[in-house]
Every structure is written in C-alpha cells, then in structure tokens.
Design brief:
By secondary structure, the chain is of the alpha/beta class. It is built from 9 helices and 8 strands. The longest helix has 18 residues.
Length: about 230
C-alpha cells in the first residue's frame, strides 16, 4: 500500500492552486478494514430500508438510471430518525428536487448545518435559476454554506449528534442520469475525518456566502464574482 501511495501524484492545480498546506501524513489516509456487502437496487427508498449500517461496514451499490441518489440521502436519514450535526455534499450537478429534499432535512429538524460544494460548470449554467433557488431555499438562519470550484467529485458525508460518521461516494450525481451508477456507503471515522479536513480547505477558499451579509447583499457579491470572471477571460 505504501508503495502505491508514493507513486500516486495528486495534482492540487485541479482546485485552482489552493494552498492546502497538507503534509504527506495528512494527504493520504488508510481507513480501517471494512466489512463489505454488495447490492443492486432501482429504488432509493427501498435500498435505504435494506441497509443495516454499523461501524466499519461498507455497502457497495450498483443502481440503474432511474435511481435518484438525492432521494437516498434523505430517506437514509429520515428512515432512521437521525439528528445530523453537519453534512457536506460535493457534486457536479443537482436538480430542483434535490434542493427541495435537502430543505426538507433542514426544515424538518434532521439536519443542523449543510455545506454544498458544486462545480463551476453547474454554476455557469444555473446561476440565475438553480443557484438562486438553492440560496433562497437553503440559506436560512446561517445554517448553509455554498462553495463553487472546479470539482467532479460525488461525495456526501455527515456526522450525527450520537457520534456516527457516515460517508457516501461514487459515480452518481444527486439527480437521475439514465446511466448505470455505483456508489458506496460506509461508517468509517478515519475516512470521514480525512474528507472533512480536505473539503473544509476547499470551502474556506471558495465559499460564496458571507454570513454577515443578508441575502440581497450576497447576490451583489455573486455579481461581483461574475464581473471578475468576465474580466479575466
């Protein structure tokens, strides 16, 4: 394993030259050995009910194009009546239904703090539609943060008030894609802590919500970002 890590060349430039200040020991993690279970499902809510996740368990899932990963996240939390302290979600794209699902978690008392990292590709196409909808729906009582950067990852991780640390990752965006997809879900402290540390660095650099400002002022900041981007083209 150590030889493979030495050969792995991680390119920080993919994140627009962020100065992560991550030393070699922190850059890679070797999570504890997990107990894997393989499943395939079409329906997100049915899959949620079938999963019995304990510490160091991993479920590897193959799902078809009708599977909506965002529905799975909501169902997994609601079915278990979890109280989530914080959730970070990194994705290429999402739908209005996904935003509504996350709003349900915030408004229903299941989730206290939500951070979304989304691609600049999505932002460039949805700035005046879904980005605006996202901020209007989720930016309530300083419980939401949004970061925009060059990302293609599909990772969701959250910590509950009972101390459980859950991470989901794979090929699936939050919305359906008409493609076969795969993702894994596991309860793994080391893997969670690694992703939490790394993604916090991204959020610190690329967050767009200044929580000292009101929503209208936030849109002024976004307009300034757009003007700066146009000026560099």
């Amino acid at each position: 394993m150590s030889n493979e890590l030495d050969l792995f060349d991680f390119d920080d430039s993919d994140f627009q030259e962020i100065d992560f200040d991550i030393d070699h020991e922190k850059r890679f993690c070797t999570p504890k050995k997990t107990r894997s279970k393989n499943v395939n499902y079409k329906n997100a809510r049915k899959l949620s009910k079938e999963i019995k996740l304990s510490e160091n368990d991993r479920y590897y899932c193959i799902v078809d194009g009708s599977f909506i990963f965002g529905d799975f996240i909501e169902a997994f939390i609601v079915d278990r009546d979890l109280r989530v302290k914080e959730m970070t979600l990194s994705t290429l794209s999402m739908s209005q239904e996904n935003i509504d699902s996350l709003a349900n978690l915030l408004n229903g008392g299941f989730l206290d703090h939500l951070t979304i990292i989304i691609s600049d590709y999505f932002y460039s196409h949805e700035r005046n539609i879904l980005i605006k909808y996202m901020i209007d729906k989720l930016d309530k009582n300083d419980r939401f943060q949004l970061a925009i950067c060059r990302t293609h990852t599909k990772i969701t991780f959250f910590e509950t008030y009972s101390g459980s640390k859950v991470i989901m990752y794979g090929s699936a965006n939050l919305r359906s894609s008409d493609n076969l997809e795969q993702f894994s879900i596991e309860m793994n402290d080391e893997l969670y802590d690694f992703n939490h540390f790394f993604h916090n660095k991204i959020v610190d650099k690329f967050k767009i919500i200044n929580k000292s400002l009101k929503t209208k002022q936030i849109w002024q900041v976004i307009n300034e970002i757009d003007q700066d981007q146009k000026g560099t083209q």
